[in-house]
Automatic annotation (TrEMBL):
<feature type="transmembrane region" description="Helical">
    <location>
        <begin position="7"/>
        <end position="28"/>
    </location>
</feature>
<dbReference type="InterPro" id="IPR010266">
    <property type="entry name" value="NnrS"/>
</dbReference>
<keyword id="KW-1133">Transmembrane helix</keyword>
<feature type="transmembrane region" description="Helical">
    <location>
        <begin position="340"/>
        <end position="361"/>
    </location>
</feature>
<keyword id="KW-0472">Membrane</keyword>
<feature type="transmembrane region" description="Helical">
    <location>
        <begin position="247"/>
        <end position="267"/>
    </location>
</feature>
<protein>
    <submittedName>
        <fullName>Short-chain dehydrogenase</fullName>
    </submittedName>
</protein>
<feature type="transmembrane region" description="Helical">
    <location>
        <begin position="124"/>
        <end position="144"/>
    </location>
</feature>
<keyword id="KW-0812">Transmembrane</keyword>
<feature type="transmembrane region" description="Helical">
    <location>
        <begin position="93"/>
        <end position="112"/>
    </location>
</feature>
<feature type="transmembrane region" description="Helical">
    <location>
        <begin position="312"/>
        <end position="334"/>
    </location>
</feature>
<feature type="transmembrane region" description="Helical">
    <location>
        <begin position="70"/>
        <end position="87"/>
    </location>
</feature>
<feature type="transmembrane region" description="Helical">
    <location>
        <begin position="40"/>
        <end position="58"/>
    </location>
</feature>
<dbReference type="Pfam" id="PF05940">
    <property type="entry name" value="NnrS"/>
</dbReference>
<feature type="transmembrane region" description="Helical">
    <location>
        <begin position="279"/>
        <end position="300"/>
    </location>
</feature>
<feature type="transmembrane region" description="Helical">
    <location>
        <begin position="159"/>
        <end position="181"/>
    </location>
</feature>
<feature type="transmembrane region" description="Helical">
    <location>
        <begin position="217"/>
        <end position="235"/>
    </location>
</feature>
Length: 374
């Protein structure tokens, strides 16, 4: 729901402030160029990440995750952070920062408890990554309080690559597994050295975004190598055999946007404007694409429905691909129509997530059809 609403609200506030739902006092506290990326990263993306991890850790460890009142409390912390940022009154920034931190801390500690109880050390990186995200989020609130928007830009890029690192780890597990199960072919054995190199490269990009210690030519080299290795990895997962199944090709196309983005950034390493624009290829094409594909899939599985007999989401997945190109590429090719491209991208985005809301709210507001807990 937040994905469906926030992008059109943002564009109306930016281009048509006279029709905006946000009062002018709102922007005195929360600067527009801070609110938009912060809420898309920490409000939208991390909500889906935390939901996925809290659900998956039960399968990984066979330990109970959050449910009932603790789960409601965790959701309330996330929601309070969103609402407090929207209020026009001059509330201190530490209030939404506190609720945001509680949301991430509870999730991280729950993952830690489940993983530690069964000594499943190969998954211990997930709660550590969430605690790192908590620290980065607090730093983003500090940047807002100091009106340090140069630091904010570094934080947003670092969080995008943090999410890229998470997708590298989790996507490398689930995409080939889901594909092999559906097309009934053996799952390709992972190339351990390839996977470890990709994790190190993505981690290096996170650190480079935060501290900018490497010269541009070294960063360019990291981007090129990461792009090539991701492309090699993706090509082993039978992507050409998934075209008839939207819940599969949507995952593959979303992952493909990752090496495309890395290569495009390497090509435009010296063009700051193009670099910022092209980051939206990853933000929309990969991040939002994988989020939409995964929630479409697990919403069926965790309500005991056949995953491949659910609503037809093809238009939604195509819409996000179009949104990525309209937002990131066309403004660079025809900058004189930049505002038009932004509105069209927002329209495609809103239709894509609006279709999910339309099709899946009836599914998610009913008990599982087998009577078991969700």
């Amino acid at each position: 729901m937040i994905a469906t609403l926030y992008i059109p609200l943002w564009l109306v506030a930016w281009f048509l402030p006279q029709f905006s739902l946000f009062p002018s006092q709102f922007w005195l506290k929360v600067v527009p160029l801070w609110w938009h990326p912060h809420e898309m990263l920490f409000g939208f993306a991390l909500a889906i990440v935390c939901g996925f991890l809290l659900t998956s850790v039960q399968t990984w460890t066979n330990q109970p995750s959050l449910k009932g009142r603790p789960l409601a409390l965790t959701f309330a912390c996330w929601l309070m952070a969103r609402l407090l940022l929207l209020l026009p009154m001059a509330l201190p920034l530490w209030l939404p920062a506190l609720f945001d931190s509680l949301f991430l801390a509870i999730t991280a500690m729950t993952l830690w408890r489940c993983i530690y109880k069964v000594k499943q050390w190969h998954n211990i990186g997930f709660p550590i990554m969430l605690l790192l995200a908590l620290v980065i989020n607090l730093l983003s609130y500090y940047a807002l309080s100091e009106r340090n928007f140069s630091l904010s830009q570094q934080i947003w890029q670092a969080m995008l690559w943090w999410l890229g690192l998470l997708i590298t780890i989790v996507g490398g597990r689930v995409i080939p597994f889901f594909t092999a199960m559906r097309i009934k072919l053996p799952k390709p054995n992972p190339i351990v050295i390839l996977d470890r190199c990709l994790i190190l490269l993505m981690l290096a990009l996170v650190l480079q975004a935060m501290v900018k210690v490497l010269p541009a030519n070294i960063e360019q080299g990291l981007l090129v190598v990461a792009a090539l290795l991701h492309l090699v990895r993706w090509s082993r997962w039978y992507p050409h055999k998934t075209l008839g199944e939207s819940l599969l090709w949507s995952l593959h196309s979303a992952y493909l946007f990752l090496p495309i983005t890395l290569a495009a950034l390497a090509w435009n390493i010296d063009d700051e404007n193009a670099y910022r624009q092209l980051l939206h290829l990853f933000a929309i094409g990969t991040l939002a694409g994988i989020c939409l594909s995964m929630i479409s899939r697990v919403s069926l599985g965790h309500t005991s429905r056949n995953i491949y007999q659910g609503p037809n989401m093809t238009l939604a997945f195509v819409g996000l691909i179009m949104a990525a190109l309209l937002r990131a590429v066309l403004p660079l090719l025809w900058p004189q129509y930049a505002q038009t491209w932004l509105w069209l991208a927002a329209g495609c985005w809103t239709v894509s997530f609006g279709l999910f809301v339309w099709f899946y709210v009836p599914i998610l507001t009913q008990p599982r059809i087998d009577g078991r807990p969700g």
